[in-house]
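Below is how a single chain appears once it has passed through the pipeline. First comes the sequence as given, then the structure the pipeline wrote out for it. We keep one example in the README because the format questions we get most often are answered faster by looking than by reading.
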Amino acid sequence: MINITADIDIPNLDEYLKAAIDPNTYDISYLHFAEINTKAIKDCEVLLVRSTTKVNKLLLNGSNIKFVGSATAGINHIDTNYLNTNNIKWKYSPGCNSSSVTHYVLSVIAELIEQKEMNYSSKIGIIGYGNIGKKVVNYLYSLGFTVLCNDPFIKNIKLASFNEILECDLISLHVPYTENGKYPTKNLINKDTLSKLDNKILINSSRGGVVNEEDLL
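Resulting structure:
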């Protein structure tokens, strides 16, 4: 019998598990994220979480966890180095929320047009051309907008520079939250970039830390 602990707010999880695994082979406990702690998961082999749970040595030390699944598009709440070092398998869900975020951004733009804050001649800049960014761009193209895209990880001569994006009337962020690497996104929008956004509209549907909120305020 596989012992599973899962965040109670992961939608439709019981339905998906029953479709994938024989219900007679596992026992599952549903907990609020604040209840997921070292003591609660000590005897479990599988942990299923959302971004509200920090999965690291502090949580897993002394447990029997062999697999961590995260119902999220990002993994900055997971210490993947610790999991890999301790032979704990893990998976996450890149693109799982792409349609929802795309619809959200389009609804915001529709409201801005309704309020006459922008129009169909407005130039839109997209930062991040991944699962979500591509969907947003395709919809905007079909609606007749002029769209510029920037993503330093994609080698495409059609993509715009970061400074060109900042010149657009509306800028929408679709990047993961990262603190390291060649192109970290923490505080991507900061005091310097904000100084170039006079009379612009900024949409951030990425993690909060992508924008330095103190600088924004």
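The beta strands are 2-7, 26-31, 46-49, 67-70, 89-91, 123-127, 146-150, 170-173, 201-204.

See the next section for the split statistics.
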